[in-house]
Every structure is written in C-alpha cells, then in structure tokens.
Amino acid sequence: MCAARGGSGCWNGSSPASRTAFILRIEVAHAARSSDDTSRRIKRRFETLRANGQKTGGPRSFGFPGYGVLSKREYERLAEQGKPRPVVPAEQVEAERQALRDGSVALVQGASYMEIAREWNEAGLRTAWGKDLGVRRGA
Question: 92 exposed, middle or buried (CB, 10 Å; 0-12, 13-18, 19+)?
Fold first, then answer.
C-alpha cells in the first residue's frame, strides 16, 4: 500500500531508503527556494542601483574618479602597511574627460576609432586597467 505516490514511484515510509529519499527531496526543494529568493534579492538590488545611476561594480570607468588598479602584490603590500588604496588623481580624470570630448568631436568629423586610440596612447592615456587603448599589436 502506498502512502504517497510521486515521480519516482511509491513512497510508504516503511524503509530507510524511502524515508531518506523523501527527506532529500524536501532539502533539495528548500535549497532551490532559497537560491531563487537570493537571486530575486540580488536582481532587485542591482535594478535599484542602476535606477539611481550608481555603479554596480567593476573597475573605474575611463573619465570617472575612483581607485587605481593595483596588482595583487601591490594591494597586499598596502594592506600590510595599513595604507588605503590610491585614488586616481583629479588631473588624470580631467585629462581623460577632455580626451573623451575631443574624441567625440573627431569621430563626428570622420576620424576612425584607431586614429583616436593612437592619439590617446601617444598622449600617455591608458585604460582603467593601465593598458594601451584599442591598438592591436602590429597595426
């Protein structure tokens, strides 16, 4: 006689295997619900941040203030010394903003992205990660 019938057959609760399987199903269902709840909370948090115009993570954007990028070794050294992460200088942020303004005008006037990237690299501008801007090797 079956006490309950499910997708995997009859469950009568009389055998240890039957009881274990039932408990595992309950635990899996609970874990799935918990995961769904967490997913909803995180999505709602990021939607709120985006709606308020706030960053949702990642490195500093080009032309915006923030912390400089450090290697893991540099970051650990600063942490050991109790020093804070260095902030990108305001002069660098303003130079990036001016480059964005000038680059926008140059694009409208017909310049290519590669030409603008070469000019910025020659001017010493780099990405937020400290890398050259958009010029492939050998190009």
Answer: middle
Break the chain into its structural domains and give their ranges. Answer: 4-51, 60-139
What CA–CA distance (Å, rounded) separates 136 from 55? 29
Q: What is the pLDDT of residues 19-72, one digit of tens each?
A: 788 888 899 999 999 999 999 999 999 999 889 888 777 778 889 888 888 888
Q: What is the mean pLDDT of residues 100-119?
A: 94
Rounded Cα distance between 87 and 111, Å, is 32
Element of type H or E holding 22: helix 16-51
For 81, counting Cβ atoms within 10 Å of its Cβ (0-12 exposed, 13-18 middle, 19+ buried), the class is exposed
C-alpha 109, offset from chain centre: 34
Strands (E), the chain: 4-6, 9-11
Whether the pLDDT of residue 4 is over 80: the answer is no
Q: Is residue 99 helix, strand or coil?
A: helix
122 pLDDT more than 60: yes
